[in-house]
Amino acid sequence: MQTLQQQWFGNVRADILAGIVVGLALIPEALAFAFIVGVDPRVALYASFSIAVITSFVGGRPGLISAATGAMALVLVSLMAEHGLQYVLAATILTGIIQFILGGCKVANLMRFIPNSVMLGFVNALGIMIFITQLPYLVGTGMMTYVFAGVTLLLVYAVPRFFTAIPAPLIAIVVMTTIALVSGVKLQVIGDLGTMPNSLPSFFLPDIPLNFETFKIILPYSVALAIVGLLESLLTSQVLDDMTDTPSNKNREARGQGIANFINGFFGGMAGCALIGQSVINMKSGGRGRLSTLTAGVFLMFLIIVLGDVVVKIPMPVLAGVMVMVAMTTFNWGSFKFLRSAPRSESIVMLITVAIILYTHNLAVGVVIGVILSALFFVAKISRVTVTNREGIYKITGPLFFASTTKFIQSFEEVTEKNIVIDFEDSQLWDESAVGAIFKVKQKLEDKGINVMVSGLNTSSEQLYEKLL
Question: Residue range 150-155: average pLDDT?
Answer without folding.
Answer: 92
